[in-house]
Amino acid sequence: MSLAASLCAAGAARADAVSDFYKGKTVSVVVGHEAGTGFDVYSRVLIRHMGKYIPGAPTMIVQNMQGASGVVAGNWLYNIAPKDGTIMATFVQTVPLEPMYGNGQARYDASKFVWIGNMESSVAVCGVTKASGINSFADLQKTETLIGATGPTGPLVKSALAVKNVLGANLKVIAGYKGSADVKLAMTRGEVKGICGLPWSTIKSFWRQELETGEFKPLIQLSGDRHPELKGLPHYTDFIKSEEDRQLMGLLFGVQTLGRAYASPPGAPAERIEALRKAFMATMADKDFLSDAEKTGIDIEPMTGEAVGKMWAEFTATPPAVVEQAKKVTTP
Questions:
Q1: Chain segment 192-234, per-residue pLDDT in tens
Q2: Same domain, 137 and 202
Q3: Residue 299: which CATH number?
């Protein structure tokens, strides 16, 4: 047998082995946040279509594992999750950075997570209720405003504190809410007047009515590229005055680019990871999936698992002095 034929046969054998493994199995997508959040919504759209692209066509389900703003799910993924290719997990993009910030509860090495792909290059915003009387970010810099947020490791807290301490907004951060859905209720009740770090895609899907009626008003873009639907709103890059600012704000806000990324635990067989990555990207181009996403009101801007891993390597290589500054401005 020729070398080419041998390689072809070996590849076919591996593909058959992957198909045989997944046949009759269940692949779980663990969401590190409560049901009804953007991460939950994205994942439920994903599982309705991705299974058919995985060899063996396994069943796919979503499991919510909330706690410590996604750190609980990160710990589980790294230390407990089966390392056999049957687990994918998603959590807010601040989770992989927690060990770098010195969070002792984050018992994982995020550089060893295996990234499957990213569904959205997210843009987050700060926004307020109509009842707040705030009409612009300049107003937010002048008038003290109560901002609802989650726990101390969550992006809603970190984003609000960064906007306060780096961009000069006059915010009083009220932490302790379970997630953005709870903050939304608190805003409806008048307990708080705004929220920071909420992805634009979540606003368009679960906050659509409030957005269309003007009850919720976005004020500034905090992450990723400037979004065409937010034309005219200031962007965090408008406040960059030095290279140190660029590095600091990139770490605080630019990481949102990895808005809906999915990881598997370290140690899963390479051929199964490859199959999941191919299935993920095939799903991102599937017409029925894209139609489902459009009906749900979520944005799809996919990125390969390899590209996600490269970006995380760049973020985790941020100079220690910049990391310390970021930690300082986001600590309550």
A1: 999 999 988 888 888 989 999 999 999 999 977 788 899 999 9
A2: yes
A3: 3.40.190.150
| CA distances (Å), origin 197, targets 101, 131, 178, 202 | 18, 20, 15, 11
- How big is the CA angle at 142 (ends 138 and 147), to the nearest 5 degrees? 90
User: Does one domain contain both 85 and 135?
Assistant: no
31, 54: one domain: yes
Query: How far, in Å, CA of 261 to CA of 121, rounded?
Result: 9
Q: In the listed set 221, 239, 255, which residue is the last one of a domain according to the structure?
A: 255
Asked if 50 and 106 sit in the same domain, the reply is yes
304 lies in a domain?
yes
Q: Domain range holding 138?
A: 124-255
Q: Examine the domain organization and report whether 248 and 297 are in the same domain.
A: no
Distance CA 113, CA 46 (A): 20
In a domain, residue 135? The reply is yes
Residue 11 clears pLDDT 60, i.e. is over it: no
pLDDT in tens, 52-99: 999 999 999 999 999 888 999 999 999 999 999 999 999 988 899 899
Spatial CA neighbour of 308 closest among 268, 269, 277, 267: 277
Beta 145-148 vs 171-174: how paired, if at all? parallel
Phi, psi at residue 106, to the nearest 5°?
-90, 95
Residues 6+ apart with CB under 8 A from 86: 25, 26, 27, 28, 58
Tens of pLDDT, residues 166-200 = 999 999 999 999 888 899 999 999 999 999 999 88
pTM above 0.90, yes or no: no
258 burial (CB, 10 Å; 0-12 / 13-18 / 19+) is: buried
Which residues, including other chains, have CB under 8 Å from residue 241's CB and lie 6 or more apart?
none
